[in-house]
Amino acid sequence: MTAEPTTARSHWLRNTVIVLVVLVVIGVGIVATYALTLSRTFDTGTEKIAEAFPEETSRPPVLEGAAASAQNILLLGSDTRGAIGEDLATVRGQRSDTIMVLHIPADRENVQVMSIMRDSWVDIPGRGAAKVNSALSYGGVPLAVQTVESLISARIDHVAIIDFEGFKGLTDALGGVDVDNAVAFTRDGHAYPQGVQTLNGEQALGFVRERYSFRDGDFQRARNQQAYIKAVIGKVLSAETLTDPAKISALVGSISPYLRVDNGLNAAYVGGLGLELRSLRSEDITFFTAPTTGTGTSPDGQSIVNLDPVGMAEVQEAFRTDSLESYTPEFQTTD
Predict the structure, then answer these.
(1) Which domains are present in the chain?
(2) What pTM does this model have?
(3) Which end of the chain is more exposed for a tag (fewer CB within 10 A), N or C?
């Protein structure tokens, strides 16, 4: 077998890294699929969600034509592993702290990541109006998928759940990450000043978890999580990471135990997607938050986030027609 040129191998690795890092949170690690051992590490280290999707009759139609190969990946994050236990695939009774939809268009020329505020007041199928993160509690992963599919009016193709504890190992495996912090705050005795700063694993975990320090609470928390992912992507794309097989191996090994994915989200799928995204650059990845009209109070007295019906109609149309690239949200960041 002829050895793969180093440059080609680096491109494969880099784009596979982008796909999985975006899956991370957000939080997912990277698998260099040309290396069999790393593929095995990913596939054996991640726990599979046996029943990840709702009944077929309750789902949006499959896209057809040019948009048929577009992909939507639901990313759920939790910082309550101690309460959930070892099996994150059976998370009924728990709530998701982070909800993101990763959209990969059919042309594979860019990627959009939409955060959904966890207190967003939505219709939970079979349950009525409630906070979007309660879907996981009411009906596990299938109901969470069904709720988000109803919200975006499009199918979810894959699901990944990550425990925030995995952020520590991911960050430390990279030797720390440089995060651009927009709002200064302090958590657990550590000060996070405004501006660029290098965070270790423990500090990164505090950075993505904090919300009480901010005037707009979870809104800034979502922005910080997006900033963290951008920092991870930047570090992974650096020469010091791409040319260090030991660091890549540590990256995959550190994050895999904290991941739960549907059966189809395996190393082969990620590797194939990495090849399709081989021309993607970090500036082609856009982060935004589902449009809202601000906070409010539910009929039963809960503090909630009200989604903007006009803005959400635009988002739904963009998902249905695979035109999310042209959607211009009120708040948006690019790497």
Answers:
(1) 7-325 (3.40.630.190)
(2) 0.82
(3) N
